[in-house]
Amino acid sequence: MQIAAYHRQLTQKLTDIGNPNAELDARLLICHVLKLDFTNYILQQNDLICAADLDRLATLSQLALSDMPISRILQNREFWGLDFIVNAAVLDPRADSEVMIEVLLHFLPPSHQKLRILDLGTGTACLLLSLLTEYPNASGVGLDVSNQALKVAQKNAENLGLSHRAEFIQSDWFADIGKQKFDIILSNPPYIPSQDIENLANNVKLFDPLAALDGGQDGLDPYRIIAQQAPLYMNENALLIFEMGHNQADGLFVILQQYGFDCAEFDMQKFTPKNPNGQIRPRDGLAYDLGQNPRVIIAKYRVKQN
Asked: pTM value?
């Protein structure tokens, strides 16, 4: 079978099961098995696929047709223009999480400042490592309760040439971090309410680690822990930034205020969708994702520590 024909066939099958990225996923799978870059993929559309590669494609295609995300089949996900290893131990990075990077770069533009960054629940370390590529003199710590996740994070740091600026510690939130202080604390914690897990799409609930999804009864338990303890680990004027669920902004603002955080200095006009009907108004500290859902909150600590 020719490459073009196999691509058409697989694209149709993926479309039939509701895959919104069917054409792209089919191409990525073919390029992976045949070891083709995009240019050669285009140039070799009429080439025949050998029997061995057809067998390999059939095996991987079956995984894709069983709702396994293409990133998990290829064990690779691009995030912020960088390649990250992905396996069963870590959450699959999503494009919406890049909003956190954009917000930080807006309010804290890249400089030669020796920033210290803490990434809570680091997983692949995509957030921490992406920031280290933007802040050339920064260093950071990635915490995760999962030792297997930390192995992935460490490997990603090595692959990106950042292991000398990134340290990874197994810790249940702040429990084992010692007395370090940071200029940026960020987290994309588990935020799905426990009772909602079973209603998630198969490509999420069957493949992302449960510990990276389950945020407790209302999905906000990790935010309460972090907001309560974070001030002990923050330098003066440090930033705290979270990713959250699309309907959790009000609850998270209450938690942040309860523990002494304030968002008043963060004008989010740039990160608020333009709505001709005027239904979406900027809210201090709140940024929206690609689907125009509330997704990120940034804040500073305002209450003086005892």
From this structure: 0.93
